[in-house]
């Protein structure tokens, strides 16, 4: 679980807000509460990692608007749990499609909410780990020269040193040097390791060279 993440609760019902906040803190979770969506956004600009628990129907800014604003402000990694006393199936489906990870109807067992929050925090941690790993890979890739990137792209498609040398009109020895540099800079022990790194990177970087 992400130890530096905080649970951010939004509910305009004072009684519900106080009760849920108390349950979250008694479960050992860091939590803050807000009486409206506007108050939430005004006071959380400095928060980096969070799980959001929001009521659906609120006078100031409803849960759907909160979700849209989170996406607009780039906080797409924050898991969102919606609680409501007025749920219906179409509404729940719509919210889930919008990215909500859980939809809990009032009145609910606090244990049910705590379990959902812990699951959300685990998702947040996994997302952060993936992002950190990908960022590190991109930094390694950025350290490659243009020729090394070309060799990298050819290697992960299965081409041999000889085939690469023919394609780029370079000596096999030159290709071997570039290959060695690629392996070191990408921190790959084997060609299989390099291929796995390439598969991870090609989601955000175009690695496959043209066959022109």
Mean pLDDT: 88
Low-confidence stretches: 208-212
Number of helices: 9
Please identify, by name, the CATH architecture of the largest domain. 3-Layer(aba) Sandwich
Taken as a percent bin, the fraction of beta residues is 5-15%
Shape: elongated
Query: The CATH topology of the largest domain, please?
Result: Rossmann fold
Amino-to-carboxy terminus distance:
48 Å
CATH hierarchy class name of the largest domain: Alpha Beta
The CATH homologous superfamily of the largest domain is termed Response regulator
Helix and strand string, N-terminal first?
EHEHEHEHEHHHHH
In total, how many beta strands? 5
Can you tell me the number of structural domains? 2
Structural class by SSE content: alpha/beta
Work out the radius of gyration.
Answer: 24 Å
Spatial ordering of strands, largest sheet: 2-1-3-4-5
Indicate the percent of residues in helices: 40-55%
Characterize the biggest β-sheet. Answer: 5 strands, parallel
Question: Which characteristics define this entry?
Answer:
alpha/beta, Arc Repressor Mutant, subunit A, 5-stranded parallel beta sheet, 9 helices, 5 strands, 54% helix
Topology:
Elements: E1 6-10, H1 14-26, E2 31-34, H2 37-43, E3 50-55, H3 63-72, E4 80-84, H4 89-97, E5 102-105, H5 110-142, H6 146-155, H7 161-168, H8 172-185, H9 191-201
Parallel strand pairs: 1-2, 1-3, 3-4, 4-5
In short:
With 212 residues, the protein is α/β, with parallel strands linked by helices.
Account of the protein in words:
With 212 residues, the chain is an alpha/beta fold. The protein has two domains: 6-135, Rossmann fold (3-Layer(aba) Sandwich), CATH 3.40.50; 143-201, Winged helix-like DNA-binding domain superfamily/Winged helix DNA-binding domain (Arc Repressor Mutant, subunit A, Orthogonal Bundle). The chain is 54% helix and 11% strand. The chain has helices at residues 14-26, 37-43, 63-72, 89-97, 110-142, 146-155, 161-168, 172-185, 191-201, and strands at 6-10, 31-34, 50-55, 80-84, 102-105. A five-stranded parallel sheet has the order 2-1-3-4-5, sandwiched between helices. Helix 6 crosses helix 8 (172-185) and helix 7 (161-168) packs across helix 8. The chain is elongated. The protein starts with 5 loop residues before the first strand and ends in an 11-residue tail after the last helix. 26% of the residues are buried.
């Amino acid at each position: 679980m992400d130890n530096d993440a905080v649970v951010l609760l939004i509910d305009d019902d004072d009684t519900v807000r106080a009760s849920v906040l108390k349950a979250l803190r008694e479960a050992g979770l860091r939590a803050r509460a807000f009486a409206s969506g506007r108050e939430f956004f005004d006071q959380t600009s400095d928060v980096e990692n969070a799980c959001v628990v929001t009521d659906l129907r609120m006078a100031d800014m409803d849960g759907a608007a909160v979700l849209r604003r989170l996406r607009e402000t780039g906080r797409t990694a924050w898991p969102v749990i919606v609680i409501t006393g007025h749920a219906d199936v179409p509404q729940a489906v719509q919210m889930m499609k919008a990215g909500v990870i859980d939809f809990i109807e009032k009145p609910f067992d606090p244990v049910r909410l705590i379990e959902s929050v812990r699951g959300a925090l685990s998702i947040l941690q996994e997302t952060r780990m993936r992002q950190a790993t990908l960022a590190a890979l991109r930094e390694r890739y950025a350290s490659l020269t243009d020729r090394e990137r070309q060799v990298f792209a050819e290697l992960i498609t299965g081409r041999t040193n000889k085939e690469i040398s023919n394609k780029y009109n370079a000596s096999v020895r030159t290709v071997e040097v570039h290959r060695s540099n690629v392996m070191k800079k990408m921190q790959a022990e084997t060609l299989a390791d390099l291929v796995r790194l390439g598969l991870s990177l090609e989601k955000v970087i175009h690695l496959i060279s043209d066959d022109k």
